[in-house]
């Protein structure tokens, strides 16, 4: 199955549908990545704080060894964690992550959050977290400009083909674009019908950044984290509007939610343990929603953000 792509401002093509690796268990991760490749996935979205990059690399290495794909067929994404924002720490941690994945370059390397935490050596604690080894939040001193300059050097050294940002506001993008020698290729944000972030999406796309949505299914991704809003909000799969549109098109609610994004050129990175849903999530670009259907889904917006440090009890009000 051929997945449509979006051309990045760096000149590379990025698949519109990928496989997200957040909360994929270590004991099943290698097999899930391998099976996702067999199912047709080519984009894999990871991060060092997910704690499973070694296993991701094992799955990819096995798939390449078995002849399922070549390295150049894959689009591998990883992220720079907050505690590695100091300019001199960016390249070393990127190289560590590349070694974990067992690859020579990332197709896309992203600044995970627009906040610097105090550096903590990986030998002390890894995967990294919002807090230090003793459970405290300690902010770092690196500016976004310092971090971005170091990110740009990764492209110079061919360690990353493209670089991008995640969880940035429009104001931070405006600032970054003033001094960026290498423009960010992508913006990754929480994006679902309960949090459409329309102005941010429009601004990023007008500036030539491809937008990637995470948590496309809204509260479903956060139930196990016991967030109050996740448990108190109607699941999108059960919403009458989503269900009605799905029934009309002979699709699943998940496929409708993903198509709502990809039809507007927003990339998505769902994950699933089910082989059936794995295949279904790839089959979201062979039908079109009507303009009125897209509008009715977008009208569900509540400005409801789930992936917020404050929701996890951290005094880091970045949104």
Written overview of the protein:
- Pathway: Carbohydrate metabolism; D-xylose degradation.
- Keywords: Carbohydrate metabolism, NAD, Oxidoreductase, Xylose metabolism.
- InterPro entries: AKR, AKR2D, Aldo/ket_reductase_CS, NAD(P)_OxRdtase_dom_sf, NADP_OxRdtase_dom.
- The chain has 319 residues and is an alpha/beta fold.
- It has one domain (9-305): TIM Barrel, CATH 3.20.20.
- The protein is 36% helix and 13% strand.
- The protein has eleven helices and ten strands.
- The protein has helices at residues 26-39, 53-65, 87-101, 144-156, 170-179, 198-206, 228-231, 240-249, 253-262, 275-282, 291-298; strands spanning 5-7, 13-15, 19-20, 43-45, 75-80, 106-111, 160-166, 186-190, 210-214, 266-268.
- The strands form two sheets. An eight-stranded parallel sheet has the order 3-4-5-6-7-8-9-10. Strands 1-2 form a two-stranded antiparallel sheet.
- Helix 3 (87-101) links the parallel strand 5 and strand 6 (106-111).
- Helix 1 packs parallel to helix 2, helix 3 crosses helix 4 (144-156) and helix 8 (240-249) crosses helix 9.
- It is globular.
- The mean pLDDT is 96.
